[in-house]
Specification:
It contains two helices and 28 strands. It is an all-beta fold. It has one domain: Methylamine Dehydrogenase, Chain H, CATH 2.130.10.10. The strands form seven sheets. Strands 1-28-27-26 form a four-stranded antiparallel beta sheet, with no helix packed on it. A four-stranded antiparallel beta sheet has the order 2-3-4-5, with no helix packed on it. A hairpin with a 3-residue loop joins β19 and β20. The radius of gyration is 18 Å and the shape is globular. It starts with a helix and ends with a strand.
Length: 344
């Protein structure tokens, strides 16, 4: 996955958004989600993944050559991790000590101290590390390299690469189940691969149906279900042990991230068409509705403690005429970058 500027043309954004209310929440005795705040960040450049740290009350937001650190109590920036080249994702260890940034522009993983946001070291990865996840069962960090079609596995104790695993195609977002399995979408093959994190091998490759270019991935670890968001307005719900596809609920167009709430049994899909799809995982994967958000707000984090969704967004300028130097990149209006906060 590239930052928003670099991939705007890859998945078409639908400008005519059909808005449905989240009336399904009434049946569950809950209030519907709504936009509750806009946190103005400013600056320039595109963005990619977000990562929440509920215990520390901070949100890490990749933003071009830096990672913004936002206080989730105030919505104000408290720090920035800089000196990077092209950030994609952030993973956090389970001890509350270190974080890991996939710096795709530098082909490396940046390790930082979460107490002061200072860089500790850098670890060479493959070409354009993108999705990244920490596996608590093996204490390893998995960086998925979009252009070299591989996974770099790093031992968190030594910050040394312990394996490089070839993949069948271009990887996207990964998840770990906490029991020694890591999963990742293979975007250009419409597949999910499963890894044995201890053996550092691929143990299964599952073809998805009715699912084009899977990007974001989330997991219900209790019920062993994977949720992959795809082009064409579909989500693939997959059994994490057998690879069987259980359901294909409709979502908005141009998704790039999905998250799961274990407490409320809800799945969220952030969509480039300017909607947040909310799905009831406890009752047949019924779509509860599509909340209007912000056009291009297609990456997100979910804070389970506050039941809030955070989405990166900015104003997008008119698409310029295509040239050899700029074939398809609509401009991001400087100073308009923000976090859209959704709650209830």
């Amino acid at each position: 996955m590239a930052i928003l500027q670099d991939r705007w043309c890859v998945r078409q954004v639908v400008f005519g958004v059909v808005i449905t209310c989240l009336s399904g929440f009434a049946a569950h005795g809950q209030q519907p989600y709504k936009i509750v705040d806009h946190w103005k960040i400013g600056g320039t450049g595109g963005w990619d993944y977000l990562q929440d740290d509920p215990a520390a009350h901070v949100l890490y937001v990749t933003h071009g050559p830096r990672v913004e650190v936002i206080d989730t109590n105030t919505g104000k920036p408290v720090a920035a991790i800089t000196g990077l080249k092209g950030t994609h994702g952030v993973a956090l260890d389970d001890a509350g000590k270190f974080g890991y940034i996939s710096d795709g522009g530098a082909n490396q993983v940046v390790v930082f101290d979460r107490s002061n946001y200072k860089t500790v070291t850098t670890v060479a990865a493959g070409t354009n590390p993108d999705g990244i996840v920490f596996d608590p069962a093996t204490k390893t960090v998995w960086a998925f390299n979009g252009r070299s079609k591989s996974a770099t596995v790093i031992d968190a104790a030594s910050n040394q690469v312990v394996a490089t695993i070839a993949l069948p195609g271009k990887p996207e977002f990964p998840v770990a189940d906490g029991k020694g399995n890591v999963y990742d979408n293979i975007e250009d093959q419409n597949e999910i691969v499963r890894f044995d994190a201890k053996a550092k091998t691929v143990t299964a490759t599952w073809r998805l149906t009715d699912c084009e270019s899977p990007s974001g991935l989330a997991m219900d670890t209790e019920h062993r279900r994977l949720f992959a968001v795809c082009d064409g307005g579909k989500m693939a719900v997959v059994d994490a042990d057998t690879g069987k596809q259980i359901a294909s609920p409709n979502i908005g167009d141009g998704p790039d991230a999905t998250r799961f709430s274990s407490k409320y049994q809800l799945v969220f899909s952030s969509n480039g068409d300017g909607t947040l799809t909310v799905i009831d995982a406890a009752h047949g994967f019924k779509v509860l509705g599509n909340l209007p958000t912000r056009k291009g707000a297609r990456t997100m984090a979910y804070d389970a403690a506050s039941d809030r969704v955070y989405l990166s967004a900015a104003q997008i300028g008119p698409r310029p005429a295509e040239t050899a130097d700029n074939p398809h990149h609509p401009p991001i209006v400087p100073g308009t970058f923000e976090i859209v906060v959704v709650g209830r």
